[in-house]
Amino acid sequence: MNNLLESVKDKVGSFLIDKGYTKRGKNDFIRKEKLHKREEVISFSSRKGRAPHTGQTYIGITSGIYYKEVNSLDKKIIQDFLNSYPIITGSISHFKDTDNNFISIPINNSDQVESIANEIIENIKDGGFNLFNKFPTLESILDGIEKKHEWLNDYHKFIKIRRQVRIAAMSLLIKDKDTAIHWFKENSLASEKSKQEIIKKMETNW
C-alpha cells in the first residue's frame, strides 16, 4: 500500500514542483519566501483502513502557512510545542470556497493512482492554494484574525494567552515592539497568572 501512496505522491509532486515547490523529507512539499521566512507547505499522510476496509489505504493532505520569524519570537517568550507550529493549517479541502469538508481518500489498487492524483490536484488548486492566496502576508493574517475569519478560529474563538503571544509576535514583525506589547496588555485576560511575567519577557527579549 505504501507503493500506491508513493505513486500518487510522485504525480502530485510533479504538479507542485512545476508550481515552484520543492520536496522536503518524505511527505512535504514547500515553497519559501524571504519576508519573515514564510513557508507554504503541502503535506501528505496516510493510514490503514479499519474493518471491514483493512485492505485500503486512506490518503490525507493538509496545507499550512508557517512564519519562522514568528516562531522564533514566540520561542523567546514561551518554549513549547507551538514554537514549531504553523500559523494556520488544515485539510486542503477545508479551505475550498464550496464543498469544504475534510477529505481522506481511499486507494487499494494501482488503477486508481491517476484519478486519485488528479482529484488531489484539484483539491490543492481549490483549497490549499486558496488558503495561500487569501492570506499572502502577515498583514492579511492579522486582518483576518481581527475580522474573525472562520479559518482563523483558533485565534479569536476563545481568548487564550498562548495564542495571543503569537499574535503579538506577528504584530511586532509588521508594526513595532511597543504596539505589539500594548496589544497584548489590552487583549489578554487580567486573570491570567502568567500575564505580567510574559510582558516582562517581551520587554526584555524582544
Q: Overall pLDDT, averaged?
A: 92
Structural class: alpha+beta
> What is the percent of helical residues?
40-55%
Using the alpha-carbon principal axes, give the shape. elongated
**What is the string of SSEs from the N terminus onward?**
HEEEEHEEHHHHHH
Low confidence ranges: none
Overview of the molecule:
The longest helix has 22 residues. The protein has two domains: 132 residues, no CATH class; 68 residues, no CATH class. The protein has eight helices and six strands. With 206 residues, it is α+β, with helices and mostly antiparallel strands. The model has no long low-confidence stretch (mean pLDDT 92). It is elongated, with a radius of gyration of 19 Å. Strands 1, 2, 3, 4, 5 and 6 form a six-stranded antiparallel sheet that branches.
List keywords for this structure.
206 residues, alpha+beta, 2 domains, six-stranded antiparallel sheet
What is this structure, in a nutshell?
With 206 residues, this protein is an alpha+beta fold.
